[in-house]
Amino acid sequence: MSTNYQGQTGPKSLQGKLNIRFNALKSGIFAKSPVLPFEDDNQYRRHVKAVMRSLQPENAVQQHLAQQIADSMWKGTRHEYRAALKRDEIFKTLTPTIMASLLGYKGLLAKYPARILLTPNLKLPAKETKHYAEILQEFEHYENNAKGVPNYNMVWRQYPKLFQGMAKWMRNIEPPLFMSNQQGLDIYWQNNPRKLEPYIDEFGALAWYYANFKDLRAQIRNWMGIWFFLQERHGETIERFDDRMVAERRNCIGMLDTYFRMRKLQDEHALMAHRRLQITPPNTFENIVLPHEIPRVVIGANEMADSADESSTS
Question: Which of 199-213, 257-271, 273-287 has the lowest average pLDDT?
Answer without folding.
Answer: 273-287
